Amino acid sequence: MSKLWNIAIVGATGAVGSQMIDCLEERDFPVGKIKYLASSRSAGEILEFKGKPVLVEELTHDSFAGIDIALFSAGGDRSRDFCPSAARAGAVCIDNSSAWRMDPDVPLVVPEVNPHAIARYTKKGIIANPNCSTIQLVVALKPLHDYATIKRVVVSTYQAVSGTGKKAIAELDKQVKDLLQGKPPECKVYPHQIAFNCLPQIGSFGDNGYTGEEMKMVNETRKIMEAEIRVTASTVRVPVFYGHSESVNVETERKITVEKARELLTGAPGVEVVDDPANGVYPMAVDAAGQDLILVGRIREDESIENGLNLWVVADNIRKGAATNAVQIAEILIGKYLQ
Ligand code: NAP
Predict the structure, then answer these.
(1) What is the pLDDT of residues 64-106, one digit of tens each?
(2) At what angle do helices 324-332 and 15-26 cross, to 10 degrees?
(3) Is 132 an active-site residue?
């Protein structure tokens, strides 16, 4: 029988953590012992793994004895505090927060783009999972970059509320119901009403006027693609529950025709081309939700520059944008690096 691995899920009660449980089950990951960790608020709750009850325990620095892989999705502060303890106890951490992503000693990995980077996990015992909007962007960019060398990317996002976690999902749900009943919306998670609205702010504003989310897309794209691509981003929260959409403009060194772009993307790992505009077929958040592929469509030449393309890129932010990507990294880790 092949080896089984002991897994801890830190943030098991959250939007990403619950999806991680589902992904491990769906992909039949060889799990030995499973440990669910969360805050004291949920300690004592019972969740399931493959139909068997699992107790949620409070996260402490002693939570990781005997754990091989710790999947973190409990916010940056917990990752900063607890990944080093988990690594000292011998676990490899795969972290969904932004805490370690730009650390030069921590690989930032999207398996379809830079799986080789996983080898550097030994430096700190931590592998970072990129931001959800960056993951879907780089999976679509990779085949185009390999063929024609991307010089510049202009991306505008339309991001679902599930990207902010379970409280944001509940807030949109409640605001929609309240507004339809003529009641004023209660705004706790977002600074303004999100129902029937678009918020051009994700994260806080930096001195340069860009938000944290926008700068993540700039910096993480370069680190993952291992290229000095110029990237500029505008990130917008929209009243969608699941699935981030992105308008992506790409400028390349050499020309890519629409036909060539379709051909490159059709064969690319993790991508599905959904592009038949004459019949009203293009990627949509409702179709992307609940599956793992990056849907690419509306492929057309940018007629305002010599070598440019426009794309519409949509993916499930909780699955490929977070949980699935982390579990894929774990699969490579046990297949190639851990004994
Ligand atoms: P969420 O739904 O709010 O869940 C947060 C999880 O963290 C819950 O399990 C919560 O446990 C746990 N937690 C909070 N404070 C804790 C503490 N002091 N000690 C231990 N556990 C604690 O958030 P989420 O959307 O799953 O996001 C989690 C992380 O993943 C964040 O770092 C986020 O940036 C990242 N991420 C999210 C997405 C996305 O699309 N949602 C994508 C990529 C990355 P309780 O239930 O006990 O509060």
Answers:
(1) 999 999 999 999 999 999 999 999 999 999 999 999 999 999 9
(2) 50
(3) yes
